[in-house]
Amino acid sequence: MRRWWPGLLLVSPSIVAIAVFVYGLLGWNFKVAMTDQHDEISQGHFVGLENFTGIWDQERWGISVRHAVVFTVVFVVGALVLGWFLAFLMEKGIRGEGGFRAIYLFPMAVSFIATGVVWRWLMNSGTGERAVGLNRLLPDFLQWHWFRDPGWGMAAMAVPAIWQMSGYVMALFLAGFRGVPEELRESARVDGCTEWQVYRHIVLPYLRPVTLAALIILGHISLKVFDLIVAVSGKQIITDVPAIFMWNAVFDSHDPAKGATIAAYIVISVCVFVVPYLIWNARRRDGR
Predict the structure, then answer these.
(1) pLDDT, tens digit (0-9, with 9 covering 90-100), for 127-161
(2) Residue 35 forms beta bridges with which residues?
(3) Which of 2, 110, 162, 197 could pair with 78 as two cysteines, CB 3.0-4.6 Å apart?
(4) pLDDT tens-digit profile of 196-206?
(5) Nearest one of 220, 259, 204, 223 to 91, comparing CA atoms
(6) Nearest 5°: phi and psi at 229?
(7) Where are the domains of the chain?
(8) 8 Å CB contact between 180 and 198
(9) Which CATH number fits domain 60-241: 2.60.120.560, 1.10.3720.10, 3.40.190.10, 2.30.42.10?
């Protein structure tokens, strides 16, 4: 006991802070979500899962969920593909690698708000003489309504997020590429493998943990995205996502129970991404 007591005493403030401000507030949120407190005055009574099932009858909730799914798929796939491609080019040992790494990683140092302000101008939906941004820069190749497009608006909304996070994904994949033992590559080449076969059978299997980690990080970012969308388009129904719906429910409609229900769904969706990864990672460390 004497051995671990000083260490426990040292980390106890962090344990208390996490218990209160993370798990305590999560518990309080789920408690509010299970009440009928639909105004800021009443105390609310316990109604179980009524709010969780009833919200699916609201058209706006279905729209926001669909938008979140489209944004997540386009953002995650786009950032993974672009990040992998950039890392593949950097792994070849190009000149000025340090400068390129800094350029690719720079967008990550910018907040989503600043990114949204710039991309709001770049993705302006004006066409013809009223065109600005990308529609003005590439008039002969690109004339699109971007995030205002009713069909693919959320796919366009993912473009700024891909631009911002692909450099981070590149850094992850580059570390994975550099972690592959050169002896394995040389052995495969000696055995007659082409460069494509070396990457397919040697390098890519080594990148599976990195790919999974990047997938988890990007997935949980996309599921709770809020600031980027508000900075680009504002709180519009055409780019509505659960986080914006939650903000409107709590601060505009003054409905704590509905806002807590939406927040609970966001937490659950993030857990669907994160918890299996944590279990897999723990089993991997234990050698199971």
Answers:
(1) 666 666 777 777 666 667 777 777 788 888 999 99
(2) 46
(3) 162
(4) 888 888 888 88
(5) 204
(6) -70, -40
(7) 60-241
(8) no
(9) 1.10.3720.10
